């Protein structure tokens, strides 16, 4: 797995491959995709899918370039309006060579937000950052849904799961669910009503 910090918004784009020269996916191709394309060529990987965690422009800006270079198909939640080839629902699994990706629907930042769980890692997009969570004040955002996603799904993951966020907004570029459970002020135990008030404050 390789991460790339690219674009004007501190986005992370990830290449996940079974091995050098093997089958792969690209998660959230952002603006400034050239380093990712160069790495795809250098590694000789066969990118089968582009996986978008949600439909905001900074997470899909490189889709067309990656697709043009590799022929990859685009996968996103069925609520995303991307003309995606694969329309995921919660709990779906995608096999890519020896890799397996499980889709977890986590609305709140957007209605189409998902996590991708694979091999002890979770790509969280803008649902969870290191030390923070995604904003809910954009169209389609919901504090109530984000509460359910964070406390009902994200915090149900194993503490050892490595968090691969969509932006470099924290003290470190990645983290673990256990670290976030203990240190992320957003994840302090709260009722849903308390969480909504917290997010609005």
Characterization of this structure:
The chain has 201 residues and is an alpha/beta fold. The strands form three sheets. The chain has a six-stranded mixed β-sheet with strand order 1-2-3-4-5-6, covered by helices on one side. It has a six-stranded mixed β-sheet with strand order 7-8-9-10-13-14. β3 (23-27), α1 (34-43) and β4 form a beta-alpha-beta unit. The protein has six helices and 14 strands. It is globular. 44% of the residues are buried. The chain has a single domain (2-200), classed as Metallo-beta-lactamase, Chain A.
The secondary-structure element order is EEEHEHHEEEEEEEEHEEHH
CATH fold-level name: Metallo-beta-lactamase, Chain A
Structural class call reads alpha/beta
Percentage of residues in strands: 25-35%
Count of the domains: 1
CATH H-level homologous superfamily name: Ribonuclease Z/Hydroxyacylglutathione hydrolase-like
Radius of gyration, whole Å: 16 Å
Q: How many angstroms does the end-to-end distance come to? A: 38 Å
Per CATH, the architecture is: 4-Layer Sandwich
Mean pLDDT: 98
């Amino acid at each position: 797995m390789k991460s790339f910090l690219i674009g004007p918004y501190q986005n992370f784009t990830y290449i996940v491959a079974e091995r050098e020269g093997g089958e792969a996916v690209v998660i959230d191709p952002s603006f400034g995709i050239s380093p990712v394309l160069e790495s795809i060529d250098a590694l000789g990987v066969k990118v089968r899918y582009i996986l978008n965690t949600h439909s905001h422009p900074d997470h899909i800006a490189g889709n067309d370039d990656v697709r043009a270079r590799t022929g990859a198909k685009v996968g996103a939640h069925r609520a995303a309006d991307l003309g995606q080839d694969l329309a995921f629902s919660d709990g779906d699994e995608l096999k890519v060579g020896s890799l397996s990706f499980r889709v977890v629907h986590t609305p709140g930042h957007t209605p189409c937000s998902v996590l991708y769980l694979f091999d002890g890692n979770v790509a969280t997009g803008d649902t969870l950052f290191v030390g923070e969570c995604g904003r809910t004040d954009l169209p389609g955002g919901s504090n109530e849904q984000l509460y359910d996603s964070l406390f009902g799904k994200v915090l149900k993951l194993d503490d050892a799961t490595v968090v691969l966020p969509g932006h470099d907004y924290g003290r470190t570029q990645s983290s673990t669910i256990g670290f976030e459970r203990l240190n992320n002020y957003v994840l302090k135990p709260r009722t849903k009503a308390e969480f909504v008030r917290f997010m609005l404050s």
